[in-house]
Amino acid sequence: MLNFTIRRLVISIPTLIIISLVIFLLLEMAPGDPMAQVPLTVPPDVKQKMREALGLGEPIPIRYWKWLVQFFWIEPLNLIDYMFGTGLAEGKLRVISWQTRSPVMEIVAQRIPQTLWVVGMSYVIGTLIALPIGIISAYRQYSWFDQIGTFVSMVGFSVPTFFTGVLLIVIFSVNLGWFPSIYDTTLVVDSWQSFVQQIRQMIMPVSVLALYNAAQISRFMRASMLDNLNQDYVRTARAKGLTERTVVLVHVLRNSMIPVVTVIALGVPQVFGGAIITEQVFKVNGLGQLLITAIQANDLPMVQTLTFIFAVLIVVFNLIADILYGILDPRIRYD
Prior knowledge:
The protein has helices spanning about 1-30, 45-55, 60-85, 105-140, 145-160, 160-175, 190-230, 230-240, 245-275, 275-280, 285-295, 300-330.
């Protein structure tokens, strides 16, 4: 397993470099002008100097190489400086947002807590709800619990999150006044009252996303459990006199989790990508909203960095899923 992990990490380096090159070239070919937001009264020669200040006057290979150095070398050095108080990256140019003129990674670091509070919490809750629903629905196939679980899953998976979000706002915020409709990103949790306020403003966006995530994962869990419940090893385990609880929760569940792990692991990068639509509905100032704002403003450094971060997370969690396969099923070996 260690050799497999090392091989995958080595292979992921050229993979990520190719992904970064593709992202960079696609953004270069995309329509849009970063000077579009500049007032028309600004003279053309001033606009040209502004372009040169942003680095747009340099050839594409040079700009791509500078971004690689800044992202893979200067930004990690800045992180080391922040953690240990050193000065390794002092005076070095970082990846700068064209829109805010601030370092991109500092803005990303400011937005991550909001995304983890809302989108991350909804994914954890959705997974914890989906797994037992899928297990019970498969074990009690066609029962009333299975029928209700199937109906709720179909509704959660079929109804778009922007509709569910607006519906909850109309019912619980406008009509009943129980929860705030806009997420307050400036709230600081430093007391019991502020903690209660944070929970109240999280309930609706977390519920919307948790329903969507639980609907998807529970369907995979149910299908995988049904596939394993009819296998020969299950009949053998029952014939040996093992209790039904041991057969289902130890033997069947462990094998059924193998395909479900892929769904869960590959869904984790979506947490950092943010549920863009839901963040827009509830005004959650997370990474998803940051990406939309950067696209609208033609902020290429921000868009490129965020997109590449999501690609890195997908590669990493693919590796984590493969490692979990070997833990769940001893028959799987990578040597």
